[in-house]
């Protein structure tokens, strides 16, 4: 025994046992369906799309040069395409920011106990069940030139001319808020409910007014959740397509990236360019997500419960 | 010692009440607390003790009555301006702030200069012996350490009143004893006026100068620990003060206070006891005896005051210096008794108790005793 003591003891367990200890066993077969789907529906099409971006059409190559990178050259050089980044940002950033910021006070008020709380919550969350198309349709009927709102405003003499609320930037912004706010509200509420209410009581007995309690206790504990909520609503708003087309100004102020990709694909039959725009959409989103996550990593992310 | 208690003469609760919807969680609480006193609010869960504490802290508005500090009304002052310190059952430490910053929080809210804040924080952390952990987050501390941080955070403000809401109930048994001593030490060192909520009679008896026993939102008795221990006003208080043997019976004779004795029929037994409160012949009564006042009669010895109960030993527990024994009587009553030697399970034993240690209470828990208490509390003030 002493002779082998200084050598690490070799395991006497079977190979199967040793593999199982490292997490390799027959239950891994359960991953097969998911893997097949991921490969067939995501990895392959995604790689194929990336491949397409390096096969620019002859017309693109002639116009922009750059060989196999012609699509990217076109994307960055053609202001008509490139500006769609800022147009999309101009919609998605304020919409996401508004949704998150507006959710905070609403979620805080609805955290208290009062009558009609359930009803109020339902009303706020209901738009989640409406599709973007239905929302757009509703907006057109309600806020269009001949819509109820304008007819009411004119009938009451508040305005002479119908107010332009749809088929422009405002219309898309409305739509993004209507569909995005319930998501943000639900997420922020659940993050908020994770914060032990006795922390607020403790801060009160220590002499903190409501603003100090919010600023010093609630907000720091909520911030990581706000970052996550922002990312989700931003991504949702960034890929806006139906409302940009239906209640927006598709060739003007709401010429968002997804519309540009669709135009290249549907109208110009330039699949390679469409893929390039789609890929760049992802890149822009990733940059924003990375920035937010970098900020989030600086925050306290531990338990927000009572005993810490 | 630079940390001291905020000074005041007396804190007065007048007819304080709180209802939730139609339910009265607390009613008619009258209490005068003198500076430096340690008061324990004691009662089972749902008795209104935590409600009373939250009302004092200002976290719950009163629906009835007044709270006065040296004659000034404080119940209308918002919680953040009251200057009372509170220690929560769940500790309620700010998880994103270090121990130091948790303790500093209240001082910063008062806008004290930075140098003074750090001096007083260091002192408070020293007081609870957490110097080595000052830079840690609460999540990195053990339960006992977290509770010490919570106490330091409350006392660093030199509050006129410290409120503690079952601060030890989340700790294990050994730690609870240590922290109990710690709280008592801090109270004596700093002279902090403390109101302490607990459901543990041992904790209340060992810590408090005076106890307030509550039941269903109403005060049952206010008094010093030995007062309550020896002279509980009704059987509910007795139950809480360790009178584990509470038997229902009927009064046969006495209770008028003549010779002070009363004869009670409990099941098939007749016992002599001391009446407490208004009991008349034929009334339903509760008989209360503490386990250590019951003794097992050695063979041939005369029972005390003719009180003898026969039963079969059902359970024997070893408690170090003595044994806790459960005895089942012929008519199904269960009696708890302490003995220096262990009887065998199944043995037939005879128990006895001195008549003046057998308390006879009215079965009704009337509001009268609470009202009497209140009158006494007011005059005592």
**CATH-defined fold name of chain A:** MetI-like fold
Proportion of β residues of chain B? 25-35%
Kindly state the number of beta strands of chain B.
20
What do we call the CATH topology of the largest domain in chain B? Answer: Rossmann fold
Oligomer class: heterodimer
Low-confidence stretches of chain A: none
Computed Rg of chain B: 24 Å
CATH superfamily of the largest domain in chain B: P-loop containing nucleotide triphosphate hydrolases
Unreliable sequence segments of chain B: 367-381
Query: Which range does the strand content of chain A fall in?
Result: under 5%
Would you state the CATH class of chain A? Mainly Alpha
Q: Structural class, from helix and strand content of chain A?
A: mainly alpha
Fourth-level CATH superfamily of chain A: MetI-like
Domain ABC transporter (chain B): 11-241
GO molecular function, one term (chain B): ABC-type transporter activity
Keywords (chain B): ATP-binding, Nucleotide-binding, Transport
Organism (chain B): Krasilnikoviella flava
